[in-house]
Amino acid sequence: xxxxxxxxxxxxxxxxxxxxxxxxxxxxxxxxxxxxxxxxxxxxxxxxxxxxxxxxxxxxxxxxxxxxxxxxxxxxxxxxxxxxxxxxxxxxxxxxxxxxxxxxxxxxxxxxxxxxxxxxxxx
Amino acid sequence: xxxxxxxxxxxxxxxxxxxxxxxxxxxxxxxxxxxxxxxxxxxxxxxxxxxxxxxxxxxxxxxxxxxxxxxxxxxxxxxxxxxxxxxxxxxxxxxxxxxxxxxxxxxxxxxxxxxxxxxxxxx
Lengths: 123, 123
Description:
The structure is a homodimer. By secondary structure, the first copy, chain A, is of the alpha+beta class. Chain A has one domain (8-120): Hotdog Thioesterase (Thiol Ester Dehydrase, Chain A), CATH 3.10.129. Chain A has 3 helices and 5 strands. Chain A has helices at 14-24, 34-38, 49-64; strands at 8-12, 73-78, 86-94, 102-107, 113-120. Chain A has a 5-stranded antiparallel sheet with strand order 1-3-4-5-2. The radius of gyration of chain A is 15 Å and the shape is elongated. The interface between A and B is large, with 41 and 41 residues.
């Protein structure tokens, strides 16, 4: 197993969020309606957490091949919202204490973690 | 906290998978190319695991409101592939042993679990 996961990045634009909402059947206005979202505790539109989490899925698949996702395990915490036009990047390095898994994070363009946790490839 | 999460279902069609691949920037042919996918260990197209996982995200948001996803934690395992035209449903019930979290699963139309684990709402 390599020491580092292949890094994967994505720019989170409003059209991407809109399309994601449509595909996943999620009409929550916190993702779609700027005026509504501005009045919430989030103070503006946030992206779906699983849109950013998908980057970890892809990082596993790029590092180990698509079969690695079968039986994969992820323990992740969504610690900071992702905003429109953020560029998020998934990365991970082997956990010295448990070498069959990776300590993973998704960070924004300011280097702030938006998701942290660990992932273990399947198969 | 309610004993059960609000259930959320989605039919996983090929157009949905295609659109998801485009939005997330994931060109992996295991999700897109039936001929290629048939020749792999998966023996056919599989959906992105995070597309199904999104249902758990929505189940938390529907049960507790969108703010519940901020700081939420998920520990999930992808145990079975999701195929084209599967209908997947996320559900969860409170963990008696740890009542601040839910034992969660995503099942297919045959009642087989495709994702299992636990989730703890944030905020």
